[in-house]
């Protein structure tokens, strides 16, 4: 990795930390540059504005999400794999929590980010169908109609994206311990589809 890539990655690491701690809205490019030990001009060499930084972080989020849902290649998936995926999903939510806290404002502000998001959401729904089918073939899930699978996908997506804002709206300050409760809720969403055999 060259120096330019290292600097770019450092900017993204620091921006993610600041966004998560203080909120995207409160953090400026000046704050990010200062925390990274860079001049503002040097930061702008890598990213033209804060929106570009958020888009690059969203690309990282996509990679992390895809990694969380990798299926085993040497065997059929089992219940342990489902549990691992549910938990990994909430780890990604926590790692990129600023995005979910401010998702509506971020998407309204940046049409390019909104396009990225909608494209990945469509990919996510299609991938969910394929994952469900694999778990059905392995006997983890009972048979389900396409409409049932679609509704389950929507439920899981909504729970994933709005769980942390839900906690904050209720006055809580979400912490990593809250991820366990999110896992419980997501598991509950899957329970009616588990094969009883």
Secondary-structure-based class equals: mainly alpha
Helix amount, in percent? over 70%
| Sheet with most strands | none
Task: Indicate the radius of gyration in whole angstroms.
Answer: 19 Å
What fraction of residues sit in β-strands? under 5%
How many beta strands in the DSSP annotation?
0
Distance between the termini: 51 Å
Principal-axes geometry comes out as elongated
Number of H- or I-type helical stretches: 10
Describe the structure.
- The chain is mostly helical and 197 residues long.
- It has 10 helices and no strands.
- Helix 4 (50-68) packs parallel to helix 8 (111-137) and helix 5 packs across helix 10 (178-190).
- The longest helix is centred in the middle third of the chain and has 27 residues, at 111-137.
- The chain is elongated and about 60 Å long.
- The model has no long low-confidence stretch (mean pLDDT 93).
List the helices and strands and how they pair.
Blueprint: H1 3-22, H2 29-36, H3 40-46, H4 50-68, H5 79-95, H6 97-101, H7 103-109, H8 111-137, H9 146-169, H10 178-190
